[in-house]
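Design a sequence for this backbone.
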């Protein structure tokens, strides 16, 4: 009788798991590094490969063990948005394009786990280490939606506040102006540019919560590995200057704030810190410059941003070499700008002659310094040959486009060959909590 009851119980739990009503235990718990190179398609990665490593070279991203074609439609439209895409990654369910953690009736999204928590919020509740890293302002949805829930993505002050109050162990990005009350000067922000209207100084709130606050690459790299909690605030606005090449030249600005660390450097510090704590962890990292430079049709800026995202991928893969219980998974949610490489012979693109501003069908072209400038030149191939190329753009916005997700390390083999955007959550959840959740069906 006891054996019969056990069999009935096992069958019942299996059916429950298959129905999606409850998760079932599978493998042991591990670590997750989710890298969101926003707006990148294989064409973006291909352009960066050609420029930085040559047509025969390989990016770190190329070396990941598994890949899948990513399908990113929303609940109410085909092309993903940064905020709704992030909500889907964080909860495993599809939402409307304007969602930032709330449904159309402004109620918190119920995640695929059955809880009103994102995967990062569940990790915090379970005592795991957590980190949010962004090259943009910290309220950027690619990371912010993993802990914040607001009616609109434009509510920057409230998103920033919820992030600081979330108890995430490590928070790094830009956006100092949204930490400070109006009239308060910061390390990067003049008093007249501070934005908070509620009078709350979130830098002081963070210090009271035990965060060590750093403002530059040098300060970050000097931190002891056993620092309990870290808040990195590396720019008044974004750590990049997202504008057309011509505007940046007039303003004498580079692509990135020179004192800010790269996302790869932020990740390296984070992983060393978490390794010292010896707890399972989840890191959510976004290189937002890949999206924003592409939206401004700034090809040189976009290629620099892609290189930075790829460097972060390299940091993650290096960590996995010595920590096999760790998953790295990458995914964008849209194809920004519709970037394409236009590669012809040197006869067609002479190295000493500016490119045409547009192609024959009117699509804008970029050279290495913007419109009507000299062509990009690739790194050498195996024969030492370099090739000229232009970057063509189809739009200034985001497209459904072509997106590829990559995975490496623990459970990478479980990345579907063709995956829904909700599957990113499921793979992360399996790795972090050791529980499998049935595919999204609603």
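Sequence:
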């Amino acid at each position: 009788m006891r054996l019969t009851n056990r069999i009935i119980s096992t069958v019942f739990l299996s059916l429950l798991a298959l129905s999606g009503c409850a998760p079932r235990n599978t493998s042991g718990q591990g670590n997750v590094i989710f890298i969101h190179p926003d707006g990148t398609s294989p064409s973006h990665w291909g352009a960066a490969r050609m420029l930085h490593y040559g047509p025969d070279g390989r990016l770190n991203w190329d070396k990941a063990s598994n890949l899948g074609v990513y399908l990113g439609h929303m609940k109410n439209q085909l092309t993903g948005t940064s905020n709704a895409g992030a909500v889907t990654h964080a909860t495993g369910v599809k939402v409307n394009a304007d969602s930032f953690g709330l449904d159309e009736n402004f109620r918190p999204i119920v995640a695929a786990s059955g809880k009103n928590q994102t995967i990062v919020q569940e990790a915090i509740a379970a005592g795991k280490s957590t980190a949010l890293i962004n090259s943009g302002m910290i309220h950027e949805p690619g990371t912010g939606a993993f802990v914040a829930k607001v009616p609109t993505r434009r509510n920057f002050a409230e998103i920033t506040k919820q992030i600081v109050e979330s108890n995430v162990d490590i928070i790094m990005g830009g956006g100092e102006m949204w930490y400070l009350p109006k009239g308060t000067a910061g390390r990067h922000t003049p008093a007249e540019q501070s934005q908070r209207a509620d009078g709350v100084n979130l830098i002081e709130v963070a210090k009271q919560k035990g965060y060590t606050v750093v403002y530059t690459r040098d300060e970050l790299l000097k931190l002891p590995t056993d620092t309990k909690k870290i808040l990195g605030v590396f720019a008044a606005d974004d750590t990049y200057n997202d504008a057309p090449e011509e505007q940046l030249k007039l303003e004498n600005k580079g692509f990135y704030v020179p004192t800010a660390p790269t996302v790869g450097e932020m990740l390296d510090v984070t992983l060393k810190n978490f390794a010292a704590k010896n707890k399972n962890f989840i890191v959510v990292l976004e290189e937002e410059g890949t999206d924003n430079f592409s939206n401004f049709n700034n090809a040189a800026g976009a290629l620099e941003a892609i290189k930075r995202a790829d460097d972060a991928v390299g940091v993650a893969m290096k960590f996995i070499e010595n920590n096999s219980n760790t998953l790295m998974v990458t995914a964008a949610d849209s194809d920004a700008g519709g970037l394409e490489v236009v590669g012809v012979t040197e006869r067609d693109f002479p190295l000493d002659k500016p490119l045409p501003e547009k192609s024959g069908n009117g699509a804008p072209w970029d050279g290495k310094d913007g419109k009507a400038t000299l062509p990009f030149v690739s790194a050498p191939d195996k024969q030492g040959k370099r090739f000229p190329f232009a970057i063509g753009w189809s739009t200034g916005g985001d497209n459904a486009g072509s997106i590829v997700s990559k995975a490496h390390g623990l459970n990478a083999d479980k990345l579907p060959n063709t995956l829904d955007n909700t599957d990113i959550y499921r793979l992360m959840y399996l790795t972090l909590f050791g529980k499998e959740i049935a595919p999204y069906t609603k």
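DSSP finds 13 helices and 18 strands in the chain.
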